[in-house]
Amino acid sequence: MTMWIVVILAGIATFSMRFSFIALFGRFDIPPTVERALRYVAPSVLAAITFPAILAPGGTLDPWNAFVPAAVVGGLVAWRTKSIGASILVGLPALWLLTWAVDVHLW
Amino acid sequence: MDRDETHAPTWIDGITAVSPLLLGVAPFGLIFGVTAIAADVPPAAAWASSFIVFAGASQIAIVEVLGGGGAAIVALLTAVVINARHLMYSADMGRYTSSVPWFRRVPMAYLLTDQAYLTTTHRFPDPRSTEGLLPFYFGAALALWTTWQITTTAGMVLGAAVPESWSLDFAIPLTFMALLVLAIKDRPGVVAACVGAIVAVAAVGLPYSTGLLVGATAGVAAGMASERWFA
After folding, report:
1. Contact A22 B109 (CB under 8 A)
2. What is the rounded CA–CA span in Å between residue B19 and residue B143?
3. Are residues A20 and B87, on separate chains, in Cβ contact within 8 Å?
4. pLDDT score, position B148
5. Please, what's the largest Cα pairwise distance for chain B?
6. pTM of the model
7. B226 contacts in A (CB within 8 Å)?
């Protein structure tokens, strides 16, 4: 029962946040400062999600874990090809290769 | 006004644009399903969260907190904080939707995800030129919604049959890494990303994933402040 209440309240809260500005804008002009700030939302949020997940996968900083080199490979592929699919198709096998190399003490 | 007259995007273009991202979402959906079945939570509520909450990272957080015996209020706050980034996406999408009737804005908002937001703003860099935006957005957003429902359900059915050695938990940071690379369009964008990353990593010990919000806010501020260096 607790789980159901949490899920329903989280659903309402999440929808409210998604709807907030989509509902409001159009009734007033967006201040230029806000418009400037919005340009940096995507790079900032994505970096703030990605880097802790890669550098601290268990919640504590661990810069030598296998995610780091695999993510560097995936990021380079994304940069060169502009393709997310290519990045994942190279990055995930890179991680498998790295963990295999660690397992057999090549690393 | 400068506009591409030859080809207004359709819903098929939306699906095409989002399809590479589905490669990252599908394993994430499987992971959520597998995690939820393994955790000590009611499976039906975990399954329903895929269409009630429809935000993967927060769904996993709810299962982890409640499955680990955490308080309901902590689970809820964690989910809200993780999903607060949608406020920023909503603010950006709001620039595109001022002429959209409210009954279409409701499903638009419900379907707003990292991937739908990023593919749409990537395809439509100028909010004043939005021909084909609605079909494109709904094509991309519904493809993602459908993938999420199918893969989270499949993950719950398959349960623990997915071996841990596949490292599917790496698929989502890898997706976000690729999204990040594509989202950086200029030098202030690089500054925003670097500051966001450094602050979020430094704040990784903060409770309830608030480091994400602190990092994102610092990144936006740094991006704005750096504009004058590159002007």
Report:
1. yes
2. 8
3. yes
4. 97
5. 57
6. 0.74
7. none
